[in-house]
């Protein structure tokens, strides 16, 4: 029975990734494929003679593992969850970090100047997104009083958290884009680096990277729907339909908003994160704390 | 069998997680196998592992400090609503300390790309 | 049956923890060293989870992924051969050889047909002499760089790597047998025996201690709540004290990173990252809204750019 559930989780990942690529396709020229991995060579295996033979293949595998593990705690509907971990939300943050780790491994492992430079930019983006993202989560956790995704969805039966914590939602949208390496935070995959990590990827790793990168956007959007948009709750339609609608709606919103701003360089991303997002995040925590003390939000 | 202590649900949960992990690695292996006979192109590039000044050293150190801070915020957030004002004040002090850190770094010109 | 699962899980996590630590200490690549340490701590996190301390276990993983990636970056900032390519071509003990497998030794010179990338075994004979010259500079750099350096990261774990013995620089016998540049110091056998003795003492203490009380109580599965409550009442001082320590750490980081009063020797300058202007998004239907100021206007209709050869 556990095996069936695990297979279902992986199936949800693959299906969701395919749908994500379809949604991203709406934002790209008709003749192009979608997603950051679109320029990778799917038909050829690439051989890099100087590569680190352990780290380079480990990259995409670690990233895929991270995304698959994150799918375990996503509540796709009432009762439709891989496993309701008591510390679900914290677990999601930890596990999506593996995607960044995988990107860094692949970048360094490639041992090309572009790949190694991309590795540094990828870690820079990690340094930029982790703390503000955590602060966006913390506001929701405070109101829901739990780290479990199911409890968070349940706590929004009355009112979605986006209404109570608009600042947190904004923070989440921006840092979610950083976490999934989409516009405007695209420097690690810039054309000036020859596509960075993805410029030297081919064959099986091209396939795995497509799934992993689409998967991370899916996970970010789905967790956003759970945290701020009430997850699978809603009238008339079954829970999973709401979850689907909210996830892809949020994803389209994030992608669209991301393209309204010009791409940011790595230095600008770091400055944005540390000078603007983190102070805002700390203010958000204090605001939410104040709201809770005043009795606003789901009752105990 | 009566003497066995009850199994904590955490073990079962993480057993499932381990199962999903193994299956994801299996999926990756499938992908590798699918491309086993694809044509191969060699990429020639100069080796690039060398000493490098990556420009965001101060950001990285401050990130480490704030990572430690986030560790405290997660459990605090879970119990905050149950405890109320005293927890709020404690976190206020904590956040004030950290904001002082950021303000200092910003004021001393540390938050810039080198 | 449950007991078998427990034992299996415990064995797997412990194996990962120990093997990761072993790999960290013996591999030639700095980057791999950091990754092995990360893996070792993931094994430790598994042990925490087996004790039902899931929050603490995941905290370990979260801290150490971020922390070690940053630590690796600082190693790259300061160390001479972060990827292990130069060291991989030198003489290594079998354990080091195993954990350095897959690193292709750097051989710019003449060994055209001699190296076997698949096993990392190639000894670049002419290349070694070049590296022999490079090494003394490397030593000097380590010393200086640690003073100037970009931060206060402890290099302790990698002190061993840096302690090359230059004893046999230029092996007179035509370059065969390579250079003994790996971690052979005169005290190595002593250190190994000391470590083994310490291990024996610790394990002996485990076996000979009076029995620890075994309880049937199951740890509280809601560990986040328990930790939070403890933080707020019993460990309040530690909580605020930790915040204060973190603040001091930030002060230290900013102070240490200020440009020093001694100018760097220009010949020692490492390649530095440039704050480049980012590229415009080219493939978008929404591209008119998202141009980088000053970047060349992307043509998004008509000609397919022939997306450049990305590599090399």
Automatic annotation (TrEMBL), chain B:
Subcellular location(s) of the protein: Cell membrane; Membrane
Main location, first listed in the record: membrane
Membrane protein topology class: Multi-pass membrane protein
GO function term, MF aspect, one: NADH dehydrogenase (ubiquinone) activity
GO CC, one annotated term: plasma membrane
EC nos: 7.1.1.-
Keywords, alphabetical: Membrane, NAD, Quinone, Transmembrane, Transmembrane helix, Transport
Catalytic activity: a quinone + NADH + 5 H(+)(in) = a quinol + NAD(+) + 4 H(+)(out)
InterPro entries: NADH_UbQ/plastoQ_OxRdtase_su3, NDAH_ubi_oxred_su3_sf
Membrane-crossing residue ranges in chain numbering: 14-36, 56-77, 83-106
Keyword Translocase recorded: no
Top-level taxonomic group: Bacteria
Purpose: NDH-1 shuttles electrons from NADH, via FMN and iron-sulfur (Fe-S) centers, to quinones in the respiratory chain.
Family, similarity comment: Belongs to the complex I subunit 3 family.
Protein name, entry field: NADH-quinone oxidoreductase subunit
Natural source organism: Methylobacterium nonmethylotrophicum
Automatic annotation (TrEMBL), chain C:
InterPro entries noted in UniProt: NADH_UbQ/plastoQ_OxRdtase_su6, Nuo/plastoQ_OxRdtase_6_NuoJ
TM region(s), chain numbering: 33-51, 58-80, 190-208, 235-257
Pfam families named in the record: Oxidored_q3 (PF00499)
Single Gene Ontology MF annotation: quinone binding
Subcellular location: Cell membrane
Reaction equation(s) it catalyzes: a quinone + NADH + 5 H(+)(in) = a quinol + NAD(+) + 4 H(+)(out)
Bias-annotated ranges (Basic and acidic residues): 122-149, 160-174, 297-312
GO cellular component terms attached to this protein's record: plasma membrane
Family, as annotated: Belongs to the complex I subunit 6 family.
Protein name: NADH-quinone oxidoreductase subunit J
Annotated organism of origin: Methylobacterium nonmethylotrophicum
């Amino acid at each position: 029975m556990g095996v069936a559930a695990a297979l279902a989780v992986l199936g949800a990942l693959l299906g969701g990734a395919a749908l994500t690529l379809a949604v991203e396709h709406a934002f790209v020229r008709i003749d192009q494929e979608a997603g950051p991995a679109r320029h990778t060579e799917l038909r050829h295996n690439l051989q890099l003679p100087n590569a680190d033979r352990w780290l380079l293949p480990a990259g995409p595998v670690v990233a895929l593992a991270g995304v698959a593990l994150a799918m375990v705690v996503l509540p796709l509907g009432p009762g439709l969850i891989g496993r309701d971990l008591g510390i679900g939300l914290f677990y999601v943050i930890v596990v999506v970090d593996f995607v960044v780790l995988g990107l860094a491994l692949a970048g360094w492992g490639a041992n090309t100047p572009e790949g190694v430079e991309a590795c540094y930019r990828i870690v820079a983006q990690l340094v930029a997104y982790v703390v503000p993202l955590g602060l966006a989560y913390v506001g929701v956790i405070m109101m829901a009083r739990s780290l479990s995704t199911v409890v968070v969805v349940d706590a929004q039966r009355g009112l979605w958290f986006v209404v109570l914590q608009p600042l947190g939602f904004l923070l989440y949208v921006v840092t979610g884009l950083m976490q999934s390496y989409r516009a405007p935070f695209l420097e690690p995959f810039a054309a000036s680096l020859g596509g960075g990590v993805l410029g030297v990827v081919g064959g099986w790793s091209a396939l795995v990277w497509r799934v992993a990168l689409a998967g991370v956007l899916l996970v970010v959007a789905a967790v956003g729907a759970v945290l701020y948009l009430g997850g699978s709750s809603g009238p008339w339609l079954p829970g999973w339909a709401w979850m689907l609608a909210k996830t892809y709606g949020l994803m389209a919103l994030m992608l669209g908003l991301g393209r309204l701003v010009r791409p940011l360089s790595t230095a600008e991303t770091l400055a944005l994160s540390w000078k603007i997002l983190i102070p805002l995040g700390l203010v958000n925590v204090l605001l939410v704390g104040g709201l809770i003390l005043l009795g606003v939000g789901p009752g105990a | 069998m009566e003497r066995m202590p009850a199994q904590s649900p955490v073990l079962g949960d993480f057993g499932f997680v381990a199962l999903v992990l193994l299956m994801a690695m299996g999926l990756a292996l499938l992908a590798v196998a699918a491309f086993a006979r694809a044509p191969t192109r060699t990429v020639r590039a100069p080796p690039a592992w060398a000493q490098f000044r990556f420009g965001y050293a101060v950001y990285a150190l401050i990130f480490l400090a704030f990572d430690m801070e986030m560790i405290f915020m997660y459990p605090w957030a879970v119990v905050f609503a149950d405890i109320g004002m005293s927890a709020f004040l404690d976190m206020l002090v904590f956040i004030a300390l950290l904001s002082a850190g950021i303000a200092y770094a910003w004021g001393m010109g540390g938050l810039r790309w080198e | 049956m449950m007991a078998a699962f427990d034992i299996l899980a415990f064995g797997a996590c412990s194996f990962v923890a120990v093997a990761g630590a072993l790999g960290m200490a013996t591999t030639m690549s700095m980057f791999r060293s950091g990754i092995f340490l990360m893996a070792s701590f993931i094994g430790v996190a598994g042990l925490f989870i087996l004790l039902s301390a899931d929050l603490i276990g995941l905290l370990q993983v979260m801290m150490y992924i971020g922390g070690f990636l940053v630590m690796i970056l600082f190693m790259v900032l300061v160390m001479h051969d972060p990827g292990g390519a130069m060291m991989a071509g030198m003489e290594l003990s079998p354990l080091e050889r195993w954990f350095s497998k897959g690193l292709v030794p750097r051989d710019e010179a003449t060994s055209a047909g001699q190296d076997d990338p698949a096993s990392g075994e190639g000894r670049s004979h002419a290349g070694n002499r070049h590296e022999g010259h490079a090494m003394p500079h490397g030593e000097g750099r380590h010393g200086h760089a640690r003073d100037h350096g970009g931060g206060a990261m402890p290099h302790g774990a990698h002190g061993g790597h840096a302690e090359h013995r230059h004893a046999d620089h230029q092996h007179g016998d035509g370059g065969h047998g390579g250079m003994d540049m790996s971690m052979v110091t005169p005290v190595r056998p002593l250190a190994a025996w000391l470590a083994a003795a310490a291990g024996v003492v610790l394990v002996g203490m485990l076996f000979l201690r009076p029995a620890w009380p075994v309880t049937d109580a199951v740890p509280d599965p809601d560990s986040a709540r328990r930790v939070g409550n403890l933080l707020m009442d019993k460990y309040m001082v530690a909580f605020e004290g930790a915040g204060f320590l973190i603040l001091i750490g930030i002060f230290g980081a900013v102070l240490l990173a200020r440009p020093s009063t001694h100018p760097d020797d220009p010949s020692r300058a490492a390649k530095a990252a440039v704050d480049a202007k980012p590229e415009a998004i080219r493939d978008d239907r929404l591209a008119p809204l998202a141009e980088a100021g000053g970047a060349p206007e992307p043509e998004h209709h008509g000609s397919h750019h022939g997306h450049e050869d990305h590599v090399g």
